[in-house]
Amino acid sequence: MVVANGYLVKFLVVGGASFAIDLGLLALLHEVGGVDLWIATPIAFLVSLVFNFLVQRKFTFQSSGRADVSLLKYCALVVFNVIATDVVVIVVDGAGYPYALGKVIATIATTVWNFLLYKHWIFKSPRRNDGAADARDESGAPVPEPLPKD
């Protein structure tokens, strides 16, 4: 179950922390450091993406899969999210509604599909040789296979 294993709560907490890092670093770079917005914004965003990937991978989903494969999938999802968000905001604005409504709609949509794709595609538990998924305890942590008896 999603909530019982804490995946959803952890996912949302890490997402909130990622946003705080993004906004905080943007403010620090721009307001304190005097870095132009066009430079500070992508720097802060990229730092928050790296934080998000690493913490979601190890803390939230406790993935033991190949990090390079997960990172490639994660980057593809980021590109898709940027395009989808842009499309939603432009369509909502073009329909005469506030662009901020489009941003809220896009954020809700990307949050839902990001959670599902993180859990079932990007950070999916690898299959064992017998085809079964790795066993997990109540917290979602991987359970080591028992040692063979002699």
From TrEMBL:
Biased composition (Basic and acidic residues): 129-139
Subcellular location: Membrane
Residue intervals of the GtrA/DPMS transmembrane domain: 10-123
Superkingdom, natural source: Bacteria
Membrane protein topology class: Multi-pass membrane protein
InterPro entries tied to this protein: GtrA_CellWall_Glycosyl, GtrA_DPMS_TM
Transmembrane feature ranges: 7-29, 35-55, 71-91, 97-118
Entry keyword set: Membrane, Transmembrane, Transmembrane helix
Keyword hit for Membrane: yes
GO process terms (BP): polysaccharide biosynthetic process
Stretches for region Disordered: 129-150
Chief subcellular location: membrane
Cellular component terms (Gene Ontology): plasma membrane
Family according to the record: Belongs to the GtrA family.
Annotated protein name in UniProt: GtrA family protein
Organism in which the protein naturally occurs: Arthrobacter oryzae
